[in-house]
Amino acid sequence: MQGSYSLMVHGGAGALDNVKDDKTAVRYLESIRRILEHGRDVLELGGSALQAVEACASLLEDDPVFNAGCGSVLNESGKVEMDAAIMDGRDLSAGAVACVSNIANPVQLARLVMTESEHVMLIAEGAMRFADHCGMPRAPEHYFSTPERIQQFEEARLKHKIMLDHDDTEAASEDQKYGTIGAIARDRGGNLAAATSTGGIVNKRMGRVGDSPIIGAGVYADNETCAVSATGFGEDFMRSVIAKTIADFIYMKGMDAKEATEAGIEYLVRKVKGRGGVIVIDKDGNCSSGFTTKKMIHGWIEQGGEAVARF
Signal sequence: where (predicted)? Predict the structure, then answer.
């Protein structure tokens, strides 16, 4: 629908065992609604889908309850390593970073990779040098050292295993919170964009990269089909190339967002027993979400309507 806009954001999927009371639930949902309304302001004022997803993803990275940016989990060395990507549906331009540290907003660094370099992805030391080249300031270590993340790390080390964000269940269980944040949008010009960012897995091996910065896995946008951001067990999403798979259902079978999301989730489960979820906006601005976990923190504004936030 030309002239209207749509926006979706997510903050992770899983059992969300840490949401044990109304106060915690309200904290998540209020953050999602606040960020949706900020995205609305961007789009109402004529901002592009790309501007909207970068702004919303940055705000999610700034909120320590989400596993991205300042709320990122710690790896096996007690350090933060973050991944992020952003994609423009107008011409399939994309930028991504992986294994970056001391960057408050990795999604903004990914945007710089897209606009200021000839590459799509930069990692680790190379990405950090590029950040310095672009004048992006370094955030101090203590910015990322939240008490909750330190406690998670210590618990994981004691158990000698990885843990996924902040659920209480064991790492082998499907009932965990797979911490990632994402934003997708369709602007009034009909352009689509997507962004995804994450801190990864508690106590993960140094250098581990998940699906979030992988174009076609954790993030995808094409004006001819849809915009997608995923959250889940990254290895499942990389193996199934889930974001591009959903786009292909639209392109090849003429599905809308809801149909393509359902087909994509069915494929994810059937092929790799995938754990997690996706948010999708199709080329007509229809919003959809799907997940294989008990819950997914997400919200949407469809065709300029009211902001809705849900688990």
Answer: none
